[in-house]
Amino acid sequence: MNELDDLFDIAHMNALDIIKIEIDRQFLLSQREKGRIGCMLGRDKNLQKTEERVITRLEAVTKRKKRAYTEIELASKIVLFYQTI
Prior knowledge:
- By secondary structure, the chain is mainly α.
- The protein has helices at 2-7, 15-18, 22-32, 45-84.
- The longest helix is centred in the last third of the chain and has 40 residues, at 45-84.
């Protein structure tokens, strides 16, 4: 069974030299240990947090734009009302 585990180690020969991000380098080293201690379960938590922040910011921008358009529309109605008086 150990031979099959080693069979699927398909990282680039110079992967440790190529990888610049330290956490990725540590992950590769943990993958190469016997027993495959390092594994990716589901999504990357840091990536998930970043995506959630982006979505939250986009929602806030959309909300501000909607409020600004509403205020502009209200202001133009007030100006039109005063022009008719």
